[in-house]
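Known limitations

Structure tokens in this collection are predictions and should be treated as such. Users comparing against experimental data should check residue numbering before alignment. To illustrate the layout, the record for DgyrCDS14904 is reproduced below. The input appears on top and the generated tokens appear beneath it.
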Amino acid sequence: MSNFYDEILEWAAKCSNPLCSSAWITITYQKSYDVIEFCILQAILKIKNRILKITVTINSAEKVFKLNDIETCSLLDETFGSNSSSIKFQPKEYGPLATNVGFNAIHIFAHDEKAPEHNYEKFEDAAKLESGAT
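Generated tokens:
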């Protein structure tokens, strides 16, 4: 499985409680993908400063995910991630001292029938700049 979106720059580094609820990042793909998983690493690790839950929006559907201490990876069910052209991450709940919080990295994994075969499944790294993700 390869990742198709990869961002290693900090996002929302100036997000501060209570303004974090109005901050978000939307990643738009050059084509539609069947997203199967996302992983998020947080920049701040102390529980009182970090984002605790996020709302993920794909194809107008929203789900809330709890974030772990350092890295959170979540597998998506077929109906939630299928045929998506973008994904949006928005803080939902955060610690009482949330200041200068954000994500250190975001990885998105998707299935692509046209990708070169790797082992038993075919996946594409759509996060590469060559893939057109913005």
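For this record: DSSP finds one helix and ten strands in the chain. Residues 78-81 form the longest helix (4 residues). Please report discrepancies through the issue tracker.
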